[in-house]
Amino acid sequence: MLDSFLREAAPWWDAFYADRTRDIPFFVDAPDENLRNYCETGMIRPSRVLELGCGPGRNAIYLAQQGCHMDAVDLSREAIDWAIERAHAVAVPINFQCANLFDVNFESQHYDFIYDSGCFHHIAPHRRMDFVELIKNALQPGGYFGLTCFAHGEGYGAEISDWEVYRQKSLKGGLAYTENKLRQIFADFEVVEFRRMNRIVQPAVSFGESFLWTVLFRLK
To answer: Signal peptide position in this chain (predicted)?
Structure first.
Protein backbone atom coordinates (compact mmCIF):
# COMPACT_ATOMS: atom_id res chain seq x y z
CA MET A 1 0.00 0.00 0.00
CA LEU A 2 2.75 2.44 0.93
CA ASP A 3 4.70 1.57 -2.23
CA SER A 4 1.71 2.57 -4.35
CA PHE A 5 1.25 5.77 -2.32
CA LEU A 6 4.41 7.23 -3.85
CA ARG A 7 5.02 7.78 -7.56
CA GLU A 8 5.50 4.85 -9.92
CA ALA A 9 9.29 4.90 -10.12
CA ALA A 10 10.16 3.02 -13.32
CA PRO A 11 8.45 5.37 -15.84
CA TRP A 12 9.97 8.41 -14.14
CA TRP A 13 13.49 6.96 -14.30
CA ASP A 14 13.03 5.83 -17.91
CA ALA A 15 12.15 9.41 -18.86
CA PHE A 16 15.12 10.67 -16.80
CA TYR A 17 17.63 8.47 -18.69
CA ALA A 18 16.02 8.79 -22.14
CA ASP A 19 18.05 11.90 -23.09
CA ARG A 20 21.70 10.93 -22.63
CA THR A 21 22.93 14.43 -23.55
CA ARG A 22 21.50 16.04 -20.41
CA ASP A 23 23.95 17.81 -18.08
CA ILE A 24 23.61 15.31 -15.24
CA PRO A 25 26.79 14.88 -13.14
CA PHE A 26 26.63 11.09 -12.88
CA PHE A 27 26.02 10.61 -16.61
CA VAL A 28 29.81 10.79 -16.99
CA ASP A 29 31.56 7.54 -17.90
CA ALA A 30 33.87 7.41 -14.87
CA PRO A 31 33.70 5.49 -11.57
CA ASP A 32 33.23 7.08 -8.16
CA GLU A 33 36.51 8.38 -6.73
CA ASN A 34 35.98 6.50 -3.47
CA LEU A 35 35.37 3.24 -5.31
CA ARG A 36 38.57 3.64 -7.28
CA ASN A 37 40.41 4.39 -4.03
CA TYR A 38 39.03 1.26 -2.33
CA CYS A 39 40.42 -0.88 -5.14
CA GLU A 40 43.71 0.91 -5.77
CA THR A 41 44.71 1.00 -2.10
CA GLY A 42 43.66 -2.58 -1.42
CA MET A 43 41.05 -1.45 1.10
CA ILE A 44 38.80 -4.03 -0.54
CA ARG A 45 39.66 -6.91 -2.86
CA PRO A 46 36.25 -7.83 -4.21
CA SER A 47 35.56 -10.93 -6.29
CA ARG A 48 31.77 -11.37 -6.45
CA VAL A 49 30.09 -7.96 -6.57
CA LEU A 50 26.53 -6.67 -6.71
CA GLU A 51 25.68 -3.08 -7.61
CA LEU A 52 22.25 -1.78 -6.61
CA GLY A 53 20.85 0.99 -8.79
CA CYS A 54 23.65 0.77 -11.34
CA GLY A 55 22.28 3.44 -13.71
CA PRO A 56 24.28 3.63 -16.96
CA GLY A 57 26.88 1.23 -15.56
CA ARG A 58 29.96 3.36 -14.93
CA ASN A 59 30.83 1.75 -11.56
CA ALA A 60 29.90 -1.79 -12.61
CA ILE A 61 32.11 -1.49 -15.68
CA TYR A 62 35.06 -0.25 -13.61
CA LEU A 63 34.73 -3.15 -11.18
CA ALA A 64 34.44 -5.66 -14.03
CA GLN A 65 37.64 -4.20 -15.48
CA GLN A 66 39.31 -4.95 -12.13
CA GLY A 67 38.41 -8.61 -12.60
CA CYS A 68 35.24 -8.73 -10.48
CA HIS A 69 32.33 -11.02 -11.31
CA MET A 70 29.60 -8.39 -11.62
CA ASP A 71 25.86 -8.45 -11.13
CA ALA A 72 24.13 -5.09 -11.51
CA VAL A 73 20.48 -4.15 -11.06
CA ASP A 74 18.47 -1.07 -11.98
CA LEU A 75 14.77 -0.29 -12.18
CA SER A 76 15.06 1.64 -15.46
CA ARG A 77 15.11 -0.14 -18.82
CA GLU A 78 16.67 2.97 -20.39
CA ALA A 79 19.52 2.93 -17.86
CA ILE A 80 20.17 -0.80 -18.31
CA ASP A 81 20.22 -0.50 -22.12
CA TRP A 82 22.74 2.32 -21.86
CA ALA A 83 24.85 0.33 -19.40
CA ILE A 84 24.86 -2.71 -21.71
CA GLU A 85 26.03 -0.55 -24.61
CA ARG A 86 28.87 0.89 -22.51
CA ALA A 87 29.93 -2.56 -21.30
CA HIS A 88 29.94 -3.96 -24.83
CA ALA A 89 32.05 -1.00 -26.01
CA VAL A 90 34.86 -2.00 -23.63
CA ALA A 91 34.22 -5.75 -23.86
CA VAL A 92 33.58 -6.53 -20.18
CA PRO A 93 31.08 -9.19 -19.06
CA ILE A 94 28.42 -7.96 -16.62
CA ASN A 95 25.14 -9.58 -15.67
CA PHE A 96 22.73 -6.63 -15.92
CA GLN A 97 19.16 -7.04 -14.71
CA CYS A 98 16.27 -4.61 -15.11
CA ALA A 99 14.18 -5.05 -11.96
CA ASN A 100 13.00 -3.56 -8.70
CA LEU A 101 15.69 -4.70 -6.27
CA PHE A 102 13.02 -5.80 -3.79
CA ASP A 103 11.65 -8.23 -6.39
CA VAL A 104 14.99 -9.96 -7.03
CA ASN A 105 15.93 -13.20 -5.29
CA PHE A 106 19.58 -12.56 -4.47
CA GLU A 107 21.54 -15.65 -3.47
CA SER A 108 22.20 -15.79 0.27
CA GLN A 109 25.74 -14.88 1.40
CA HIS A 110 26.91 -14.82 -2.22
CA TYR A 111 28.67 -11.45 -2.52
CA ASP A 112 31.80 -10.16 -0.83
CA PHE A 113 31.07 -6.56 -1.90
CA ILE A 114 27.80 -4.73 -2.55
CA TYR A 115 27.88 -1.18 -3.87
CA ASP A 116 25.23 1.52 -3.99
CA SER A 117 25.94 4.87 -5.60
CA GLY A 118 22.80 6.98 -5.30
CA CYS A 119 20.17 4.28 -4.83
CA PHE A 120 19.59 4.38 -1.08
CA HIS A 121 18.52 8.02 -0.94
CA HIS A 122 15.65 7.09 -3.29
CA ILE A 123 14.45 4.30 -0.98
CA ALA A 124 11.19 5.15 0.80
CA PRO A 125 11.34 5.25 4.62
CA HIS A 126 9.11 2.19 5.05
CA ARG A 127 11.51 0.20 2.85
CA ARG A 128 14.77 1.13 4.61
CA MET A 129 14.98 -1.90 6.84
CA ASP A 130 14.05 -4.18 3.92
CA PHE A 131 17.01 -2.62 2.11
CA VAL A 132 19.33 -3.27 5.05
CA GLU A 133 18.15 -6.87 5.39
CA LEU A 134 18.63 -7.45 1.66
CA ILE A 135 22.27 -6.40 1.94
CA LYS A 136 22.88 -8.41 5.10
CA ASN A 137 21.40 -11.55 3.53
CA ALA A 138 23.26 -11.20 0.21
CA LEU A 139 26.68 -10.44 1.75
CA GLN A 140 29.12 -13.04 2.96
CA PRO A 141 29.99 -12.72 6.68
CA GLY A 142 32.62 -10.00 6.90
CA GLY A 143 31.65 -8.68 3.46
CA TYR A 144 31.71 -4.98 2.55
CA PHE A 145 28.95 -2.55 1.61
CA GLY A 146 29.81 0.74 -0.09
CA LEU A 147 27.30 3.59 -0.01
CA THR A 148 27.15 7.00 -1.66
CA CYS A 149 24.19 9.26 -0.85
CA PHE A 150 23.07 12.87 -0.34
CA ALA A 151 24.56 14.62 2.70
CA HIS A 152 22.29 16.70 4.90
CA GLY A 153 23.06 20.43 4.94
CA GLU A 154 24.54 20.71 1.45
CA GLY A 155 21.48 21.93 -0.45
CA TYR A 156 21.21 18.74 -2.46
CA GLY A 157 18.64 16.16 -1.47
CA ALA A 158 15.43 16.73 0.47
CA GLU A 159 15.84 17.61 4.15
CA ILE A 160 12.34 16.56 5.16
CA SER A 161 10.95 14.18 7.77
CA ASP A 162 9.71 10.70 6.97
CA TRP A 163 6.20 11.91 7.74
CA GLU A 164 6.58 14.71 5.20
CA VAL A 165 7.54 12.16 2.51
CA TYR A 166 4.09 10.62 2.80
CA ARG A 167 2.26 13.90 3.28
CA GLN A 168 3.74 15.20 0.02
CA LYS A 169 3.64 11.76 -1.63
CA SER A 170 7.21 12.28 -2.84
CA LEU A 171 10.87 11.72 -1.96
CA LYS A 172 11.52 15.13 -3.54
CA GLY A 173 14.34 13.86 -5.73
CA GLY A 174 16.11 11.90 -2.99
CA LEU A 175 16.49 12.23 0.78
CA ALA A 176 19.51 13.82 2.47
CA TYR A 177 21.01 12.05 5.50
CA THR A 178 23.04 13.08 8.51
CA GLU A 179 26.01 10.99 9.60
CA ASN A 180 24.20 9.95 12.77
CA LYS A 181 21.15 8.81 10.85
CA LEU A 182 23.21 6.62 8.53
CA ARG A 183 25.09 5.11 11.47
CA GLN A 184 21.76 4.28 13.12
CA ILE A 185 20.26 2.70 10.02
CA PHE A 186 23.35 0.59 9.35
CA ALA A 187 24.07 -0.22 13.00
CA ASP A 188 24.71 -3.89 12.16
CA PHE A 189 27.76 -2.84 10.15
CA GLU A 190 31.21 -1.72 11.21
CA VAL A 191 32.25 1.63 9.74
CA VAL A 192 35.52 1.32 7.83
CA GLU A 193 35.51 4.81 6.29
CA PHE A 194 33.00 7.66 6.54
CA ARG A 195 33.68 10.92 4.70
CA ARG A 196 32.45 13.40 2.11
CA MET A 197 33.18 12.51 -1.46
CA ASN A 198 35.96 14.57 -3.05
CA ARG A 199 34.80 16.85 -5.82
CA ILE A 200 36.40 15.94 -9.15
CA VAL A 201 36.31 18.43 -12.01
CA GLN A 202 35.29 16.70 -15.23
CA PRO A 203 36.45 15.30 -17.56
CA ALA A 204 38.50 13.00 -15.34
CA VAL A 205 39.15 9.31 -14.66
CA SER A 206 36.92 9.48 -11.54
CA PHE A 207 33.61 11.05 -10.55
CA GLY A 208 33.13 13.01 -7.33
CA GLU A 209 30.78 15.60 -5.81
CA SER A 210 31.30 17.05 -2.32
CA PHE A 211 27.56 17.13 -1.49
CA LEU A 212 27.61 13.34 -1.19
CA TRP A 213 28.54 11.05 1.68
CA THR A 214 30.71 8.10 0.84
CA VAL A 215 30.76 5.29 3.38
CA LEU A 216 32.41 1.89 3.45
CA PHE A 217 30.78 -0.57 5.85
CA ARG A 218 31.79 -4.08 6.85
CA LEU A 219 29.19 -6.60 7.96
CA LYS A 220 29.86 -7.55 11.59
So the answer is: none
